[in-house]
Write a structure and sequence with these properties.
single chain, 11 strands, magnesium ion binding
Length: 196
């Protein structure tokens, strides 16, 4: 399938190694595409969990996906600053239905103050055993963890300060419903979070 264009909405589907659908984001606006990269924004997006529970995201989030990297990144714009959630996951594929990837359980969360935390190591150990992750996948994910920490420390790619500002501004240029902005009436808060 050809890459979506800026302003298009796509669904994002996260699967587990055994092929089960883990989570679905219904409407993500694409703000940038390159040969191997899709950057999008979720803003009050309907999310459906594997057990059927549905909820709406509370704050805008910029998502970064790469066809060759074994992680994806969510930058969440929160009142106290930008927090990052990096999923160790397969590179994405794209078909008519959605952007899809396999979630490999491990996550690195970066708080607005810069603190980093590895999450779900116990879930990874359990699923590795249950679903027989290969040694190759285990090795890729271990090396990717170090690569990801390096990106975070060097403020590379989606962790660069300007990344959030640039792509959130682009989102606001593309969206037809600007009066629904998360920051409507709170522009000073927006400037503080984005560092503008």
């Amino acid at each position: 399938m050809e890459m979506p264009r800026e302003g298009d909405y796509i669904a994002i589907q996260s699967y587990k190694h055994n092929g089960t659908l883990h989570r679905n984001w219904r409407d993500t606006m694409v703000v940038k595409t390159e040969q191997n990269i899709i950057i999008g924004v979720n803003d009050r997006t309907l999310i459906t969990e594997e057990d059927g529970r549905k909820w709406i995201s509370r704050e805008p989030a910029i998502v970064y996906f790469h066809r060759k990297l074994w992680f994806n990144v969510i930058a969440m714009l929160r009142p106290d600053g930008v927090a990052y959630y990096a999923n160790l996951a397969s590179p994405f594929i794209l078909d008519r239905e959605a952007l899809k990837y396999i979630d490999y359980d491990l996550d690195i969360k970066v708080f607005p103050d810069g603190e980093k935390r590895l999450l779900d190591a116990d879930e990874y150990a359990m699923n590795k055993k249950r679903w027989h992750y290969s040694e190759e996948i285990d090795s890729i994910l271990r090396s990717t963890s170090f690569e990801l920490l390096d990106w975070i420390d060097q403020k590379k790619g989606p962790f660069a300060r300007k990344f959030v500002q640039i792509w959130y501004e682009r989102y606001n240029q593309l969206r037809p419903d600007l009066d629904r902005s998360f920051f409507k009436g709170r522009e000073n808060e927006e400037r503080k979070i984005l560092g503008t």
